[in-house]
Every structure is written in C-alpha cells, then in structure tokens.
Prior knowledge:
Elements: E1 4-17, H1 22-42, E2 52-59, E3 67-69, E4 72-87
Antiparallel strand pairs: 1-4, 2-4, 3-4
Amino acid sequence: ARGKRIIYDIAGRVFIKDTGDSTTFMAKLWQAVDDIFDSIDADDTLGGNAIAAMIVRMGRPSMDEFLEGEGGVFGYIDFAVQAEETVR
Length: 88
C-alpha cells in the first residue's frame, strides 16, 4: 500500500483591541506574531496529526485597516499555516 499525501491550508486572524496607545498596540501586534510562530514552532506535527506544518503567510494588510465591533476597534494579524499529512 502506498501512502497518500494530503496538504491542508489553515488560515486565521488574531484580533488586537486598539486602546488609542500606538506603542502598546504595536507591542501587542508583535506579541501576536510571536505567539503564532511559537505555537507552530513548539510542535510542527500539530499534536501528532501532521508530518510537518509551517507558516506560509503572516502579516497585517494595512496599518490603516481596523474593524469595529464587540465594544471596540480592533487591528489584526492574518496568518496561514500549511500542514502535510500522509494517509494509507
């Protein structure tokens, strides 16, 4: 039996509330980037379900783009992870 390779694309968004303090907002954006990286780097098997996972995209489309809702204004970081699995 030969193994079949499946590639999964997983995308997400981390929202950061803008309190009006640009220094704090930027620090929280960088913390979100670090958290995403650290999560994948800590276990690129995604709990043993994948052969390997890697971040293929991470960033903020524009520093001028914010979303309103849930009692605040939010900036965000977009990210995408690609994971590979082999099934038999």
